[in-house]
Design brief:
It contains eleven helices and twelve strands.
Length: 276
């Protein structure tokens, strides 16, 4: 039986077992996907368990996404550029790593707003952490001409912008409200607005009709940012789809079947998300 996992610390909150368990049942596959709590100091020992054949592979979540990178035998260019790994597997006796966050972000956008990349000239990204890096990587690959990073720590935004070249620029957090009116796509990659976190204070008064507003937060499913965008004629895109779509490549590698994000799967996860 193919045995897979998600490792993190803590990891009990992860909804990944629900996603992969749904696909295993849907395709009638013999396999398992389980949560394993692995503190950063024990990552190397856990990877040895994969090499020994105990697991076929799995996912990696915080705080281990950076810790596993130097311990793998081969890392994709995408994961190396992002400085983090979220999917690992054994192949030809070697332990491989990849990062599917940008794939998940783009796939969900494609699903919710088909043809978005033909109408987005300027993207405003809130935050400059790991999720922002994935979003910038994806948008740059799709040819978005201007990507603006706004972060509470300007130095971090400047550092990330410098890595991606001339099409990416860093601005101060205080400039965010004024940039809303010139943006075709706005993406919140911070935890602000998440249940139990401080609110995201962004003035949407200048939002133009049809502007895409994407919030990677999915608890609650409709954040205050998305509700505000909807009320002003924007196109809201929730964070749940990114979680669902980023899981596709890993499942295909481990179990040999490419799954689909279906309404039934999404409904199952929506039912598990507490109301705002």
């Amino acid at each position: 039986m193919t045995r897979c996992f998600i490792i993190g610390h803590p990891v009990a909150h992860s909804r990944s077992p629900m996603i992969h368990g749904h696909w295993l049942a849907e395709h009638g596959l013999g396999g398992s996907y389980e949560r394993v709590d692995v503190p950063p100091g024990e990552v190397a020992a856990f990877l040895d368990r994969i090499r020994s054949g105990e697991f076929a592979g799995g996912n990696v979540t915080v705080p281990n996404k950076e810790a596993v990178l130097p311990l793998l035998d081969h890392v994709s260019e995408t994961a190396r550029r992002m400085g983090a790994v979220n999917t690992i597997w054994m192949e030809d006796g070697r332990l491989h790593g990849d990062n599917t966050d940008a794939f998940g972000f783009l796939a969900h956008l494609d699903d919710r707003v088909p043809g978005w990349d033909g109408r987005v000239g300027t993207a405003l990204i809130l935050g400059a952490g790991g999720a922002a890096r994935a979003v910038v990587h994806g948008l740059a690959d799709r040819g978005v001409g201007r990507i603006i990073l706004v972060n509470r720590s300007p130095a971090r935004a400047q550092e990330l912008a410098a890595e991606f070249g001339a099409n990416v620029e860093a601005r101060g957090w205080g400039e965010a409200d004024g940039l809303v009116a010139v943006s075709d796509l706005i993406v919140n990659t911070t935890s602000l607005g998440m249940q139990g976190q401080p609110p995201l204070e962004l003035d949407l008064a200048g939002l133009r009709l049809g502007t895409i507003v994407d919030d990677i937060v999915y608890v609650p499913l409709e954040t205050a940012l998305l509700g505000g965008a909807r009320a002003r004629g924007g196109l809201p895109v929730d964070g749940l789809g990114m979680l669902l779509h980023q899981a596709i490549p890993g499942f295909e590698r481990w179990f040999g079947v490419r799954p689909q994000v279906t309404p039934a799967l999404r409904a199952r996860l929506e039912a598990d998300i507490p109301a705002a």
